[in-house]
Amino acid sequence: MRAAEVPADAVGETRGVSIDDGRPTPPVTSASIVVLTLARRVETELNGALAPLDLTVGRLGLLGHIAGVPGVSFSDLARMSGTTVQSVHGAVKALVVAGLVRDHTARAGAASAIEVTPQGARLLNEARKAVAEVDDRLFGPDADPVLREVGRTVRSAFAGEQTP
């Protein structure tokens, strides 16, 4: 029997699934699966672009939250990052050691006073350039037409514009 032949007594998904070229037909498209697949691709591209800066997407997000919300609490950072307060404490300590932020918290339980250092601000500026390069590569004028449309729709949705 050739590989493309299916025995007459085959049952379930193995019978009659192939098309003329012998390959199975694609599954029904799920918006959730498409978005998840695209998100993984974007995260991989961003992590690659940020690696020379010794950043990851998560570390950039935390640094961005600290820069964008002066005096943000560890609890708020955890909520914004979708992680635990304990994880945020560890991540902030790593940013402090790297010289990217200052933590003026006097004691455990005290209101935080975390701020980005000048070095952290410079790194954020470099990271913005790396993110813009990834945006252009994935969603810019030379990108796949479907991805260009995704980029346009996302920008429009978050700018409050209506898409046609």
Strand portion:
under 5%
Radius of gyration: 23 Å
Shape: elongated
How far apart lie the N and C ends? 53 Å
Q: What is the makeup of the main sheet?
A: 2 strands, antiparallel
**Low confidence ranges:** 14-19
CATH topology: Arc Repressor Mutant, subunit A
Structure overview:
With 164 residues, the protein is mainly α. The chain has a single domain (12-149), classed as Winged helix-like DNA-binding domain superfamily/Winged helix DNA-binding domain (Arc Repressor Mutant, subunit A). Helix content is 55%, strand content 4%. The chain has six helices and two strands; from the N terminus they run H-H-H-H-E-E-H-H. It has helices spanning 31-50, 57-68, 74-81, 85-97, 118-139, 145-159, and strands spanning 101-103, 114-116. Strands 1-2 form a two-stranded antiparallel sheet. Helix 1 crosses helix 5, helix 2 packs across helix 5 and helix 3 (74-81) packs across helix 4.
Give a concise summary:
The protein has 164 residues and is mainly alpha-helical.
